[in-house]
């Protein structure tokens, strides 16, 4: 009983008359409970020293490792009107297959012979360039001929001038000689005149000497006049020589001016040719844009433009496209506080949406239905959502990811960190401390080797 009083009454009670009391006192519940509690305590103590893998939990979604493998949008480079659809949603297309044909809506490109006419303009301009080149060649030939004529004329004029200079020298000597003869004749006439006055010479001799004096004077005057004429001829020839140089230089300047004009016109024609060829190339390239083709092997997922005759603006989205060959990856986001704990090549356990799994956070090897991955890259700057983006790729040494997995599927991720005792993990969570910072084994091995 309760044994509250010192007066014992159980000696006076016949327990055999009370079956319920006999059954209650016969049970050993308290001993069993003590054993259970002791066993639980021992189990908790042992469990608290078991290794616990620290993890960082995050959400993410499936993407592709390479940008060219991700879903992409096909846009129309030019504006146009839908003329013919060659595919429908869900179709597989190979690289270069025609998806859509559009027709022109700008009046500047309505001419169906635009390419031919533009090509004709290019050819005509090229002919103009050739004509200007021929004109320049003709002008160059004229300049060469004119220079030869100038040289010949100048040589002829210089020869005449040299002859005139020599003639001046000759006439100068002749005039000097005739002047000397005139002086001698004057002296002789003076002597004859003195002798005639004295009566020693006859009048005939006097008149003969006087006639000779007059003839000598006439010869001297004639020689001097010829000398002056020769000097005048030298002056005239010098002027003529200058006139020849001026005339031919004027003609050369005119031809060179014509040549420069022809060169300018040639350069303008060449510029027009380049511009027309550029225009022709643009027209030719634009004709190829009327047919929108598949950039690579893949599937047409969803069209953004629909019926025949619908107007498409320049740069407008036409459809979304998924490449056939791609390498899946996982894109997840982690808090900035967890970023220092994450390193490239660390293991990540992944539970994809739609694939059932049993997860033991601290014992990943005991989990079932999860898949393994390796951290491939960590962004160097924070994303718009205030977290850092991490790319995870498949671990080739583990079970491959499901074949039915598609880009955009959600996933819950556990980034594996270091192993700590269970008691430490409980103590850390109670105190709100972050996981332990540790370095991956591979990186530690590399540093040890160094």
TrEMBL record:
DNA-binding keyword on record:
no
Q: Where are the transmembrane segments?
A: 36-53
Q: Which InterPro entries has this protein been placed in?
A: MFP, Single_hybrid_motif
Going by the UniProt record, its keywords in alphabetical order are: Membrane, Transmembrane, Transmembrane helix
The domain of life is Bacteria
What is the name of this protein? Multidrug resistance efflux pump
């Amino acid at each position: 009983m309760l044994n509250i009083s010192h007066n014992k009454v159980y000696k006076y009670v016949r327990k055999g008359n009370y079956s319920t009391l006999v059954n209650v006192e016969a049970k050993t519940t308290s001993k069993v409970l003590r054993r259970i509690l002791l066993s639980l305590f021992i189990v908790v103590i042992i469990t608290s020293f078991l290794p616990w893998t620290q993890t960082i939990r995050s959400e993410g979604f499936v993407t592709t490792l390479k940008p060219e493998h991700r879903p992409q949008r096909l846009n129309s480079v030019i504006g146009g009107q839908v003329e013919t659809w060659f595919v429908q949603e869900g179709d597989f297309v190979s690289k270069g297959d025609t998806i859509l044909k559009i027709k022109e809506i700008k009046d500047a490109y309505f001419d169906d012979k635009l390419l031919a006419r533009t090509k004709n303009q290019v050819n005509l301009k090229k002919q103009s360039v050739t004509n200007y080149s021929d004109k320049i060649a003709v002008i160059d030939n004229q300049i060469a001929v004119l220079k030869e004529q100038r040289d010949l004329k100048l040589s002829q004029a210089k020869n005449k001038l040299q002859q005139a200079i020599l003639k001046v020298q000759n006439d100068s000597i002749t005039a000097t000689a005739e002047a000397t003869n005139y002086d001698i004749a004057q002296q002789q006439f003076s002597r004859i005149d003195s002798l005639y006055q004295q009566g020693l010479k006859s009048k005939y001799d006097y008149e003969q000497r006087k006639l000779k004096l007059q003839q000598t004077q006439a010869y001297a005057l004639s020689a001097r006049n010829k000398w002056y004429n020769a000097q005048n001829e030298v002056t005239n020839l010098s002027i003529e020589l200058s006139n020849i140089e001026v005339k031919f230089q004027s003609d050369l300047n005119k031809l060179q001016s014509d040549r420069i004009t022809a060169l300018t016109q040639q350069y303008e024609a060449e510029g027009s040719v380049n511009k027309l060829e550029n225009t022709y190339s643009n027209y030719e390239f634009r004709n190829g844009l009327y047919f929108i083709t598949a950039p690579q092997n893949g599937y047409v997922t969803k069209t953004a433009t629909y019926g025949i005759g619908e107007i498409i603006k320049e740069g407008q989205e036409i459809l979304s496209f998924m490449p056939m060959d791609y390498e899946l990856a996982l894109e997840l986001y982690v808090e900035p506080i967890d970023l220092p704990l994450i390193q490239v090549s660390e293991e990540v356990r992944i539970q994809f949406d739609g694939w059932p799994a049993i997860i033991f956070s601290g014992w990943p090897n005991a989990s079932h239905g999860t898949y393994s991955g390796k951290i491939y890259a960590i962004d160097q700057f924070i994303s718009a959502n205030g977290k850092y983006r991490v790319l995870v790729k498949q671990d080739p040494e583990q079970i491959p990811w499901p074949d039915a997995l598609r880009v955009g599927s959600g996933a819950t991720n556990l980034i594996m960190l270091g192993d700590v005792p269970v008691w430490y993990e409980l103590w850390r969570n109670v105190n709100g401390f972050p996981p332990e910072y540790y370095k991956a084994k591979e990186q530690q091995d590399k540093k040890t080797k160094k």
